[in-house]
Protein 1
Amino acid sequence: MKLFDFPGAPNPRRVTIFAKEKGIDLETVHCDMSKGEHKTAAFLKMNPSGKIPVLLLDDGRAIAESVAICRYLEAIQPEPNLFGRDPYELGHIEARNRQIEMELWTQVGTSWVNGPIVGKMGIFKQIPDAKTASDKNVTRYYERLDAEFAQQEYVAGDRFTVADISLLSAVDFASSMVGLKPDEGLINLYRWHKQVSERSSVAG
């Protein structure tokens, strides 16, 4: 299997961490987004949305979207379980992962699109007020997470799941590329971040 990736892109990183947790080796294919390789006819046949990551299977079929790819990997390698062992966990982990995507990832994305790095590219008409609002929303979400981590070890409870992978990728991207590093006073959030960052799938 081949994973189409680009250095620094957060969504392919989610798949990479997930695969390492599973002990699945994925061949990485460099897709140079700066050269528009994700918009070529050949790439669009794999993913009409023209986005990474894409997982190309050995039989030539392709799967797009990071969580969808992770679900495929979970299906072919059920353990260690990362999506839920019973009906409650399946629903709860899904909900937590969805909240991170809809309430944090979307806001980080808005700040990214309207931030200085994308601004230098000159490909979008930026909206400063949108960035101001999304920056505040990210900060508030960090504070919410800090309160939650005072009560639980991981995003969805007492064990590491796909929701932790989603959150880690979001926080790291926001911190390094968007200028939205959590306040140092959020000690519970930083405790969680240190703990998950030390996992071999992340640090290795």
Protein 2
Amino acid sequence: MPTLRHITLTLLLAVLSMLPISTQANEATWQALKEGGLVILMRHSLAPGIGDPPGFELSECDTQRNLSAQGRSQAEAAGRVLRERAIPIAAVYSSRWCRALDTAELMALGSVEPAPWLDSFFRGWGDQASITQTAQEQIATWQGPGNLLLVTHQVNITALVNSGVGSGEMIVVRPTDNSFQVVGRLNVSGD
């Protein structure tokens, strides 16, 4: 009859045998990023709430939903991890919403180019079809060297990859002929 120690050891080994699969998938994504030529779709860091308040003005950050202190820390942590892992970032584009621009700037990976084709279309702010098509075209034509970082919104990423994404989370895609394929997901902010 198995002892409690034997059962515990068997269960522990079973659990540990499942962990490397996730770790290996993440490591494969990190390795692919080191080689360059990929696109990182990142949702802006934590900005509590949904949408923007009444009276929202694109040119006035104080009228928008903005990053919390935790969101600012998330963005800084994400940039730090990308630098520590020596991930080459060739260009950084961001939605013009302040929470996205702040995320991209706090990551400190290079100059940030505001891009209307990454703006949110939540609650009718923009033309979803046009924004998504332009983003698809920009992704499909990326060739590197290095990787392209696109900081945008949950609705935009969902429209592109048909999957939700958390605050500060990244979906890494590989451009293909007139399209792209998902390589992996990364959440480097620890949340």
Protein 3
Amino acid sequence: MHEIPSVPVVITDIIDESPSIKTFVFSRRFPAEPGHFCMVWIPGTDEIPMAFSAQNAITVQKVGEATEALFALSRGDKIGIKGPLGNGFSPTGRTLAVAGGVGAAPLRLLATLGMADDFILGARTAGELLFSKELADVTNLKCATDDGTHGHHGFVTELLRAADPASYDTICVCGPEVMMKAVLAILIDAGCPEKGQFSLHRYMKCGVGICGSCCIDHSGLRVCRDGPVFTGDVIINSEFGSYTRDASGRRKPI
């Protein structure tokens, strides 16, 4: 199997998106398509998977040691990027994007490349709605916030039901897995789970399909190589929405 090298890049800009989310812009543009990810090497700390939010950027939420180390970097510092990796979204016809929280990152690229007609964006509060102004310029955007501070007071799933999911040819989804599982349930009820394309996040060691750490039950499909984007009909009877695994392989309930 051909090994993809990690390429050193310089951080050219850091954008504060919310108190816990930053976008890191780097000096090199990669041929990433919407949904592709990269392995990000943070010198002296770890290498972790991140979705491209632009062909020269990643958008990161601070959730652990590696992301904390990334947040401590400044403009001019170097990181390593291995990618693009995995498969991407492959929309056809009338397309809806559904994003929750930092799940807006890979779907941003879908929208900015003109591949999404409508967009449903959700977050806990107005200040955490990622890329809302940019997305409103290129799609028909509807927002939902848990606390009602912007748009619909409630969840993206409520906006999805109102949008008549069966009327779309493709529905691209990324966000917390509990949210994505609820979206899949709506598509199953509408009789069209195959229209959903879901971007999964799993623990990865290699990112290129060798180590098997990101295989999902019960199919054994590798999230890094066969995904991270899977259609709804493929993951209906999988671990999706139930559990993931940690670095030791133990199940972690979602």
Protein 4
Amino acid sequence: MIVRVPVVEKILSINDQLAEENRARIQSAGLFSINLMASPGAGKTSLIEKTLPRLKDKCRVAVIDGDIATSIDSDRAAAAGAQVSIQINTGGDCHLDANMLRGALDQTDLTQFDLLIVENVGNLVCPASFDLGVHKSILIASIPEGDDKPYKYPAMYRGVDVLVVNKIDLLPYVPFRMDYFEHGVQVLNPGVLTFPLSCRTEEGLDAWVDWLFQNAIHPTRNLELET
């Protein structure tokens, strides 16, 4: 006789419970929080590096970086101006989960910050399934990845609140059909808030930073967190 145990469902159920605890802590602290997701090399850390100097003296930012190994990304965030930068090494896991984030939240006083940026592990599959308990999930797509990613990874594009399209300075040099890409996005996530930008040339960065800043200084106690 073969007994099938719904392991995945159990793991996700436990994760959702812990995410609710994170959600309550973040809400109580009154800070705005985001989960940055992308494939490796799409520009998560570069976007953080370009964002933090623009928020200097405007709001207090904490960054939590997830990676399989090393503290390279958290070191870069600290150098760019994060008031605190915490590294989570997953030891092989291809995503952050609510329990990992809870451990990182334990390491700092959340009430001392206005904005929490969580940089997830570079992956276009697993991060979409694990609620962390933050306000907004943000996906960074990049031009060199190709225009077919919404079609290949629908779960990632369907579940995010904000889409950042990075490296638009490469559009003249890369065979990327923007209309095809946008059609795939709109089918999965109609009307999703989108920021086309380039971390290299800094085109489009102002609109992204303004959105972050307005949310960070807004009284988030009245803002519903994503479930």
